[in-house]
Specification:
Layout: H1 3-9, E1 26-30, E2 33-36, E3 41-44, H2 47-50, H3 59-71, H4 83-95, E4 100-106, H5 109-126, E5 133-137, H6 146-150, E6 170-172, H7 189-198, E7 202-207, E8 211-212, E9 218-219, H8 222-235, E10 238-242, E11 266-269, E12 281-286, H9 287-294, H10 311-325, H11 328-343, E13 353-359, E14 362-367, H12 373-382, E15 385-386, E16 393-396, H13 404-418
Parallel strand pairs: 3-15, 5-6, 5-7, 7-10, 10-11
Antiparallel strand pairs: 1-2, 2-3, 4-12, 8-9, 11-12, 13-14, 14-16
Bound molecules: pyridoxal-5'-phosphate.
Length: 430
Amino acid sequence: MDLAFDRQHIWHPYTSTLSPLTCYPVKKAQGVLIELNDGQQLIDGMSSWWSAIHGYNHHVLNQAAKQQIDQMSHVMFGGLTHSPAIELSKKLLALVPDNLEHVFLADSGSVAVEVSLKMALQYWQAKGEPRSRFLALKQGYHGDTFGAMSVTDPDNSMHSLYKGFLPQHIFANSPQIGFWQTWDEADLTDFKQKLLDNHRQIAAVILEPIVQGAGGMRIYHPEFLKGVRQLCDEYGVLLILDEIATGFGRTGQLFACEHAGIKPDIMCLGKALTGGYMTLAATLTTKQIADTVCGGEAGCFMHGPTFMGNPLACAVACASLDLLATGSWQAQTAAIESQFADLLPQLTRHQQVKTVRWLGAIGVVETHHPVNMKEIQAHFVAQGVWIRPFGRLIYLMPPYISTPLHINQLIAAIDSALDNHQLFHSAIEV
Ligand SMILES: *Cc1c(COP(=O)(O)O)cnc(C)c1O
């Protein structure tokens, strides 16, 4: 594999052309194992960013892709339709909260978020009371495109780089009370105030239910989410739930909003939708919102990507949802959660550890100092695991099929890293 070419010419996520790091070359992946070019096998702790929930190279998903590819890989979705999209939408509507009735198939998570924002804007326009602002949470993350960036945490993200270009939205304090802690209404005070002060301008609240992912791996109390739903109803503001990371069982419920027993007005899905095989996302909404949008001046919803409803991706997504329908994800994520509950607290004996937290198949170790990415990555690979931390967060979101032995090995690798000061930047360097 021409790694020199890769370093010189290919952009990887958030990388510099001036000081490119060498990436590890992957030959293939099977089950929970990622095999490098030299034959070394790594236990995957990341599910390729929340997506490969059933593991890699799954025969059921492979079969679905092969069957579909012999029918057609793609046809345009304008004026044409096909059974992979119809079957997928049927399956999705049977799983999501029952107030959602319309499905927009988008190309990626970020696009699903853009679509959700556009739906909310068109909704208020059609009602003859245009609103142009969104209320989001600090430490939230919604994607890398402009609309998605504009509702992502303004302080810990790339906002300042695009000053003057990003629309200014409103940010409430992120929830401080953890999932397993005792609830206190005071956690909602700032959110409530922001809604009270601005509700006539606010088209929708957008947030990640229960788990704030890339913005800090924060796992918060269901009562916060319940309160948000009540306040949105009280002030007549739409609620968009970004379940792109949390959806499809990751938090131990099929969708994270189920922890709070609430329903969104608009829901974004992505990541695990195809079981990690290819990019596909969806934005779902109610009949009332869809019909209002389409009753407006425009007469339709103004979005339609070239690869909308891609049959190949839809066919694999159908197969992935069939695997979820067997229900085994429930026992699997519960087993992973109880292993996290047993083992993660033991890591707090390391001075480097600030706190640990977990929910479902998500486990997080927050350290005092940021990781030295290059060094810690090499350490993990030497330990035979694939874990990719960021900042002060070392976290696991393994495939649901991971065995107790796999989880033990992942946590043992983190354990061994925590005593090694060279794997962390000192406080002074930061
Ligand atoms: C990953 C993610 C996105 C963006 O999805 P992409 O497929 O990377 O565009 C949006 N929202 C949340 C919560 C995410 O975790």
